[in-house]
Specification:
alpha+beta, about 25% strand, binds 1,6-di-O-phosphono-beta-D-fructofuranose, 15 strands, Fructose-1,6-Bisphosphatase, Chain A, domain 1, five-stranded mixed beta sheet, 8 helices
């Protein structure tokens, strides 16, 4: 279906948004949009090209790497290195930061962190998956290679954070301090167009996203909250339904549009939960707050945490403001 007349393209939107021409952000976001198109194509053909299934190795997280995890990671690294608009990259799939260290990228003012494929378990099932990206201004001087401290900044320093959701349509959603906007890929034009301007997360919704199999392994306060979510009153379910997709990006996208809450807390055996602070929790927290929601680690605002290690994990609670207030009261 051709895009509605008048939908502004991602490139035109970002060039208007970041008027300061030499910021490099419009070009960097265009590079990320190009990666999104490639991954959407690769994921759509994975079954035909023998790219489903596991790569046969374990990554730095101790998780089995899917072939698509590796392909998506390579697409991101090659495209951002070639684009010349970021000094380096941290990825869930690479143990160390990738410092590009060439003239163009050393002169860039930004670094990028990514989860190339979020929801890896869904790849072989033809279910929604995502990519998550974060853009920080460098703290190291331009003109030289990026440094480790560039990648270990609190989420409050983010200038851009977003995700791509590969589903019935391919959407790129990104936040700045000025709000959250969603763009849909128009295959016929091979470009993204604004379809969800100024997304605001409803103060409450119908859904909580939690892997209920962990119910008997979480703290009493969280158990109390899940009991509340599932409480039955006058023979009616409520107040919330459980929608847990196994892909943070998919759960986040639904909760952003309809209202809801997602949490992956510490559980017995996982003292800091599963999600990684730098390239999963921080970008999603930034997006949630820019849309009027909230995100914590159960005690503190996610965006205030100072990362010690690029792959460190954090308990993660994110979503509609009023639901987050209820949850935090239950945990207190
Ligand atoms: P990956 O980035 O490795 O896919 O891990 C993140 C994630 O898939 C989230 O998207 C999802 O919410 C969660 O892990 C599912 O974990 P579990 O299978 O333990 O519920």
């Amino acid at each position: 279906m051709a895009k509605e007349e008048g939908n502004i393209s991602l490139g035109d939107f970002t060039r208007r948004q970041f008027r300061d021409g030499n910021s490099g952000l419009p070009a960097l976001i265009q590079d990320i949009g190009g990666v999104a198109k490639r991954i959407a194509d690769e994921a759509g053909r994975a079954a035909l090209d023998g790219k489903l299934g596991a790569e046969g190795r374990v990554n730095v997280q101790g998780e089995e790497v899917q072939k698509m995890d590796q392909y998506a990671n390579e697409i991101f690294i090659n495209a951002l290195r070639t684009g010349g608009h970021c000094a380096g990259l941290v990825s869930e799939e690479t143990e160390q930061a990738v410092i590009f260290n060439d003239e163009a990228n050393n002169n860039s003012g930004y670094v990028v962190l990514i989860d190339p494929i979020d929801g890896s378990e869904n790849i072989d099932l033809n279910m929604s998956i995502g990519s998550i990206f974060s853009v920080y201004p460098r703290v190291s001087g331009r003109g030289k290679p990026a440094k480790p401290e560039d990648f270990l900044q609190p989420g409050a320093n983010l200038v851009v954070a977003g995700y791509i959701i590969y589903s019935t349509s391919t959407m790129l959603v990104y936040a700045t301090g000025a709000g959250v906007n969603g763009f849909t890929l128009d295959r016929s034009a091979n470009d993204f167009f604004l379809t969800h301007p100024q997304i605001r997360i409803p103060p409450r919704g119908r859904y909580y996203s939690f892997d209920n199999s962990y119910y008997n392994r979480v703290d009493p306060g969280l158990k109390r909250y899940v009991d509340f979510c599932m409480s039955v009153k006058d023979n009616k379910n409520g107040p919330y339904s459980n929608r847990y997709y196994g892909c943070l990006v998919a759960d986040m996208h639904r909760n952003l549009l309809k209202g809801g809450i997602y949490f992956y807390s510490q559980v017995e055996g996982k003292p800091n939960g599963k999600l990684r602070l730098c390239y999963e929790c921080n970008p999603m927290a930034f997006i949630a707050e820019a849309a009027g929601g909230a995100a914590t680690n159960g005690k503190k605002r996610i965006l205030e945490l100072s990362p010690a290690h690029i792959h460190q994990r954090s308990p993660f609670f994110v979503g509609s403001r009023e639901m987050m207030e209820e949850l935090m009261d239950a945990l207190a």
